[in-house]
Amino acid sequence: MYKPSWKVGVLFSKTGPLAVIEETQLRGTLLAINEINEQGGIKGRPIKPVYYDPASDASAFGQYAKRMMVEDGVKTIFGCYSSSSRKSVVPVVERLNGLLWYPTVYEGFEFSTNVIYTGAAPNQNCVELCNFLMQHFGNRFYFVGTDYVYPRVSNRIVRDFVTSNGGKVVGEKYVKLTAQHHDYSPIMRDIKNVKPDVIFSTVVGKSTADFYQSYADFGLDPKLMPIASLTTTEAEIKAMGTDVGEGHITAAPYFEGIDNKASLAFTKRYKKRYGNEPTNTCVETAYFQVHMFAEALKKANSLCTDRLRANVLGIDYEAPQGNVSINLSHGHADVWTRVGRANRSGLFDVLYASNSAVVADPYLLSYGAKREFA
Ligand code: ACM
Q1: How far is CA 178 from CA 143, 183, 186, 209, in A?
Q2: pTM higher than 0.90
Q3: Spacing, Cα 150 to ligand 1 middle (Å)
Q4: Which atom of ligand 1 is nearest to the CA of 149?
Q5: Is residue 186 included in any domain, yes or no?
Q6: CATH number of the domain that residue 140 is part of
Q7: Residue 347 and residue 201 in one domain
Q8: Which residue's CA is the closest to the ligand 1 atom numbered 4?
Q9: What is the mean pLDDT of the chain?
Q10: Regions in the chain scoring below 70 on pLDDT
């Protein structure tokens, strides 16, 4: 007998300045959907993705989310990289009672009963990254970011940590999303002049390659003054060239090469489908959240947001990064903290790893500004 499919929305850009990372999230999402369908779907029904390309335009995310929900009959949406795109979709899913699954590191300080947040919140990466940088490089930080909500709020948080632990922010510069190599020259000149101990980057997308290339062209040395980031993954390192990326630092829940069964199986399947492309934290999160959704859907047997969400809260899953779970009280994932340094082959050597998933604390309630680092 004919069994109708479970229709879900997928919103990641294949074009525009954020495609370098969003396209990998699209791949992770489709890989997981494909795996579930190959195993017979959920209750014998396949998952069917409805996809639009928002072309890295934040407002297009909101418009397509609305179209999916009003015209295509979608209730659950996997999507969004930038916090601006998430902020464009949230009012839509709130008004129409949908569920957005958001698989990206973000700045925290948000809660919606219509969102499941599966990327890292600031307490799951910034805190340990600052700790690590201050121990190994020094406490004079220079911020460079793309000009939108994620970098602005992340820098406010990092500034609090740095200054309350005896450090200083010696520069803070923003560039547009489409910034090119030459846009970074005045910043590099200022960095050479100010001589910080570390650069904290919240630059995102295609422009990340221009930023790191400009740094290299100005003769700066990552062994002495690395760029540290939460958004420079294996995908951006590949785009800039592995020689340019070598020595720089990133904090993320997952890096390719983590030695466990789920991680090895994931990279094998990803490369079988997409060729010799590196995986990264964003594709891993996009991938595991679909599998989590499938577990919840099995129990709910419904895409109705209220029924589905009730089965998502508290769920856990053996993800490539390790065991992760969705926090009962606020719908953020408890994920791992890792700090890695890019090597010559474009992958990250892990220099710090938590012993288990770190409880998400999106409002930093347990980290007062005066908290001492370990
Ligand atoms: C981001 O905008 N949350 C990377």
Answers
A1: 18, 10, 16, 11
A2: yes
A3: 5
A4: 2
A5: yes
A6: 3.40.50.2300
A7: yes
A8: 82
A9: 96
A10: 1-2, 368-374
